[in-house]
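Friendly challenge for the regulars: who can give me the structure tokens for this chain first? No prize, just bragging rights.
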Amino acid sequence: MTTHKQRSVWVRVISLVAVGFGLLTIKEGGTVLFGGEAARASAGNYVPFVLWFNFVAGFAYVIAGAGLWMQQRWAALLAVAIVAATALTFAAFGVHVYFDGAYEPRTVIAMSLRTLVWAVIAAVAWRQLLRRRVI
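First reply, four minutes later:
Bragging rights claimed.
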């Protein structure tokens, strides 16, 4: 397999992960936001600004994934912006917890996973689409 094809495969893989992650994020966030009282009750002590960020970010995930599939440079930049915004939201969540705000412990796991996944996506996209200028 040539180097170009190897790069293309990795970009395709992360693009599918991004789109899948985005669709799941939109579904889960939308269920809590718009699904009624039972959905909100089952979510427990969710933090509204984190929930809204994740819901809106889900759309950015899908857009970034589509751009990555098409190997567009702007998609790599969007991936970097997503990981930065996710990390900032996670930090704000940490401040919320520090000041004794109510929260669900699973939010820590979810935000850790989001940050890690997008850091990997951004790193691969940066390396494959920006650093080596493959487009």
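The chain has a mean pLDDT of 93. The longest helix spans residues 3-34. Your move, everyone else.
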